[in-house]
Amino acid sequence: MLAAKGRLSIRKLMDCESDYKLLFKWLNDEVVQEFYEGKSVKHTLEQIHDEYRSRAIGENYVQSCIIVYGEIAIGYLQYYHLQPEEIKVYGAARNEQVYGIDLFIGEPTYWNKGIGTDVIKLTVDFLFSKKGVHEIFIDPQTWNERAIACYEKCGFQKVKVLPKREIHDGEYKDNQIMRITHEEFKDN
Ligand SMILES: CC(C)(COP(=O)(O)OP(=O)(O)OC[C@H]1O[C@@H](n2cnc3c(N)ncnc32)[C@H](O)[C@@H]1OP(=O)(O)O)[C@@H](O)C(=O)NCCC(=O)NCCS
């Protein structure tokens, strides 16, 4: 277990079929895909293995995690050292201990209940207090107003918009780059 509070916990993705099948289900769910990756992206179980196994066994700079609510796995989160290109274009204040986070709640019945806010706060607290991180970025697409509202509630601030940065269902979309520093989180 990486972090837990109340009914919520975040654990590492495990190298086991049941975890890969969760990703297979969520990443192929059109309701989720509308907000994450786009409906045109289809994943086979083999592709899931290829992409996520190195992360599950700790051989990738991305740490993949499962979000658990009560006893139920409800979503996916990943955190990672921001790569040099991202550090530069996002305008990070430093080169080290700068992290990025991505996430989705893969069970839509759990959306809009404040759980995403709790997940982000728990993860941000973990990264700042246990991993010695200084600055964390998150990069929702500009049209994803719920995600942006959720991140703002957690203390993230808008830094800049990167135009036409990601393809979503065949169209280039703008990303809203958002940041929180350890100092801002402590003052929150
Ligand atoms: C984004 C996500 C993680 C947020 O988690 P969540 O538990 O649904 O969010 P919360 O309930 O904690 O907070 C959402 C806030 O957005 C608000 N909101 C919802 N829809 C909105 C909209 N269309 N426009 C503006 N605000 C909106 C809610 O009212 C809530 O704010 P409030 O508590 O002040 O009322 C989750 O919805 C999700 O996984 N969505 C699908 C995938 C996705 O978008 N991933 C993020 C990619 S960057």
UniProtKB/TrEMBL annotation:
InterPro entries: Acyl_CoA_acyltransferase, GNAT_dom. Pfam families: Acetyltransf_8 (PF13523). Residues 8-183 form the N-acetyltransferase domain. Gene3D superfamilies: 3.40.630.30. It comes from the Bacteria. This is Acetyltransferase. The lineage of its organism: Bacteria, Bacillati, Bacillota, Bacilli, Bacillales.
